[in-house]
Amino acid sequence: MQNTVQIKPDIIWVGGNDRRVNRFENLSPLTHGMSYNAYVILDEKTVLTDTVDRSISVLFMENVKAALNGRNLDYLVIHHMEPDHCANI
User: Fold this and answer.
1) Strand order of the sheet with strand 46-49?
2) In whole angstroms, what separates CA 2 from the centre of its chain?
3) pLDDT tens per residue, the chain (89 residues)?
4) At 59, phi and psi to the nearest 5?
5) Which runs of consecutive H residues, i.e. helices, occur in 1-89?
6) Is 24 exposed, middle or buried, given 0-12, 13-18 or 19+ CB atoms closer than 10 A?
């Protein structure tokens, strides 16, 4: 079941939350899990900024599909190559 948040008319959060994660990079304790932030930007072209960790891939793909609403994805921007940003390329 998709779970997106419309930030602005042309920006949609498509990330997700993983409450099972209890440490950030196996070092820093997390009491409420991890939030993966990825966004779809809708303009003349469409852009996806980052993906999410593989643990929530199914939700993420549903979110992206819902946000694009039948449009094709034109660009993917990855901020850096760590699994929580790029696991779903």
Assistant:
1) 5-8, 11-13, 39-42, 46-49, 75-77
2) 12
3) 789 999 999 999 999 887 777 666 667 777 776 778 999 999 999 999 999 988 889 999 999 999 999 999 999 999 887 777 667 88
4) -60, -45
5) 57-68, 83-86
6) exposed
pTM of the model: 0.84
Count CB neighbours of 84 within 10 A: 23
| SS3 state at 3 | coil
Asked if 84 and 53 touch (Cβ cutoff 8 Å), the reply is: yes
Cα separation of 29 and 16, whole Å?
Answer: 19
